[in-house]
Amino acid sequence: MCHGFIESVTFVPASDVASFTAVVRDRHTTASKVKGGTSAVPARLRVTWLGRRRVPGIAAGVELQLQGMLTLRDGLPTMFNPRYEILSRQEHE
Fold first, then answer.
1. Radius of gyration of the chain (CA)
2. pLDDT tens digits along 70-93
């Protein structure tokens, strides 16, 4: 289970297999050791919906809760086709 904010979304070209990917930043930060001290680094999770080009309500800035199985892809924790609940959206003026 993960609770965070969508940091970015990626759209694939029409010529590629349909998928929709978002990077979610955990609402809590984790401490990471850096040379000479520690630094707060937000935990990130890649979320990919296979077979879809868009997911209604999913956009940068949206707060959501996700549930699904985790795997590690290219060094980033990844969830495929998770259950999700939108908790809030940023309003744009």
1. 14
2. 999 998 999 999 999 999 876 554
Contacts of 6-11 with CB under 8 Å at 24 or more apart are 6/58, 6/59, 6/60, 6/61, 6/62, 6/64, 7/44, 7/60, 8/60, 9/58, 9/59, 9/60, 11/53, 11/54
SS3 content of the chain, % helix, strand, coil (to 5): 0, 65, 35
User: Which structural domain, as residue segments, surrounds residue 79?
Assistant: 2-88
Residue 31 lies inside a defined structural domain of this protein: yes
Structure token pair of residue 91: 């309003």
